[in-house]
Each structure stands twice: as C-alpha cells, then as structure tokens.
Write a structure and sequence with these properties.
The chain is an alpha/beta fold. The chain has 15 helices and eleven strands.
C-alpha cells in the first residue's frame, strides 16, 4: 500500500530525528572512551585555581560556553563567560593570573580567540582548551588540550555545528561534575545557589517554612472547649496543638471535633485530642513533609525535637504555595 505524502513525510522526519540522535550518541561514546590523563589534569587545574573559571568561545561555541560557565557557577566553582570579541576591546581586564581559562573552538583556529590565547601566555594564566584539532594553534598553546573525536556534523549539509557542539557541551558537563564531586558539593550547598523557583523549593527545610512562637495554636490538656475553639479559629489553621510542659501531648483537628460532637462543650482538650499525631523534625526537607501529609491524608504536621518539645507546625497549603509539589 502506498502511503500518503503526509504519512511519508512524518515517517521520514522521525527517521531523520532518530538518525541524528544515534549519530550523536555514538560520538559521545567515542568521546567517553577517549578520555585520558589530560582530563584529570584539567580537573586538577580547575580545582587548584584561586580565582574563577573563565569560559570563552565564538558563535555556537560561545552559546555552549555560556551554559558550561553557568553549570560550573551553580555547582560551586566561580565561573564567568567572556565574549571573545569583546575581550579584545577591554574585557581582557576581567581575567587575572589567579583564573583558569577554558577556550572552545572546533577548528582551534578561530581568529577571535587569538588575543585571549596571547593574553594567557603573556600573563601566565592557565589555559584549557576543547577543540577538534590537536594540531591547531589553540591546542598547541594550551596547558591542557581536550580533543574531540573526529565525528561528522549531523546537519543535512555536514557543516552546521551539531555533533561538535553536543560533544563540547557533554565534555563541559563531565568537567563540571568531576570538579563538583571532588569538592564534595552537597545538596545543602546546591540550595545556596538555587534558592528560587521549583528547584530551590525542593531543598527547603521544614524549619524554614514552619509557623512558630506566638503563631502556634497551643492549648493544655485541661483547656475548656471554648478556649480550644478560639485557638483553632483565631489562627485560621483549623488545628490546636495540645502540650504538656512544652512537649507534644496531642493535636485537635476538625475531624476530632466532629467525632466528639455529643456533649462537646462540656469536654476539655484532653478528651478529644488525637494522642499520637504524625510529627516531623525541623531539618527534614519540606518535600518529605508533603509526602507524609499526602500519605496520611492530613493537612498539618507538628514539628518537634528529639525530646518532643513543640518547635512549630507546617501546613500542606503553605508547602504547596512555596512550590513544593
């Protein structure tokens, strides 16, 4: 059966896409297998720097370079992208002998990089390069040259930077992760550089989001129900926390009130409270608190220390508002 033109076009596009991804995956595998002592030298140079990692490139290499610099900066290594053309017009002053330069160029003969190369050699700035040409000026002038495998560009005419930029980006990620691990960069430090948005929200601690102090709806075991209701409604939380000498003794929720409606106003807090409520510590991740509340179908958790002293309360609504879902 002959396929309609639209179906043939769809099938052709899918096969083109798969061919591109397979070719680039093959090139990345070759790059991984070809890593040697020079990669280790580059990692050691970045670890040893007292300044910043300066990344530079032109065109598509420049775009990739910006991403590499951003990845290093967000994982604990101060990094900055310098536009190679602007460097020749004053931005070389951003680079100091304490820095390490990472220059990107597939050919290794990009004219805009020449002033940067000369500057690093004149002032003893450490130079790492990523290039596809081991005989190029850039490779020969570098302290460490990381060479990309000879793999064809996968664009239709074999000229637009495609495979080469994928390889450069992958090698930049490999350097950043190796340096990150060598530094022992942990989630707590990662959060310092990612405080905003959904990503930062995943690293929030319960202690950063909980209500505490006078905001807590605390009652004693012998508190009459009118006082309990006032505390529950006055804070707007729909829950009261029952304490004994500052330690958690139970909680009272709307559900507890409904289960004790008969003669409710003649009772005291201890008569209706849930004695073993779910709790969490202040150092737990907010995402853990959300999972616990969802799993137990509750809307709030008491935050306690090891001695069961009440430190605060965290609500599902506030976790969701903070972006933790």
């Amino acid at each position: 059966m002959t396929l309609p033109a639209s179906a043939m076009t769809t099938e052709s596009a899918l096969e083109d896409g798969r061919d591109v991804l397979r070719a680039e995956a093959t090139a990345l595998s070759r790059l991984a297998e070809g890593l040697d002592a020079r990669f280790v030298q580059a990692v050691d140079m970045i670890l040893a720097t007292r300044g910043r990692l300066i990344v530079a490139g032109i065109g598509k290499s420049g775009h990739v370079g910006r991403k590499i610099a951003a990845t290093f900066a967000s994982t604990g290594t101060p990094a900055h992208f310098v536009h190679a053309a602007e460097a020749s017009h004053g931005d070389l002053g951003m680079i100091t002998p304490d820095d390490v330069c990472l220059l990107l160029s597939k050919s290794g003969e990009t004219s805009e990089l020449s002033d940067l190369i000369s500057y690093t050699r004149r002032f003893g700035v450490a130079l790492i390069s990523i290039t596809g040409n081991p005989e190029s000026t850039l490779a020969q002038k570098s302290d460490v040259a990381l060479i990309l495998p000879d793999a064809p560009e996968v664009c239709a005419i074999g000229m637009a930077p495609t495979t080469s930029t994928t390889l450069t980006l992958g090698l930049g990620d490999a350097l950043a992760v190796a340096v990150m691990r060598a530094k022992g960069f942990d989630p707590a430090r990662f959060h310092l550089f990612h405080p905003g948005g959904k990503l930062g929200a995943q690293f929030l601690r319960v202690g950063e989001l909980m209500y505490q102090g006078d905001a807590l709806p605390l009652v004693t075991e012998l508190a009459p129900m009118d006082e309990v209701l006032m505390r529950m409604t006055g804070t707007g939380y729909g829950v009261a926390i029952m304490v004994n000498d500052g330690r958690l003794a139970g909680v009272i929720t709307d559900g507890d009130l409904r289960r004790n409606m008969e003669g409710l106003m003649s009772k005291v807090a201890g008569d209706v409270a849930t004695r073993s409520p779910k709790t969490i510590g202040p150092d737990a991740l907010v995402s853990e608190a959300v999972a616990m509340m969802n799993g137990n179908k509750i809307n709030a958790l008491c935050v306690i220390d090891d001695a069961r002293h009440v430190l605060g309360m965290i609500r599902l609504h506030d976790c969701l508002r903070a972006g933790v879902i």
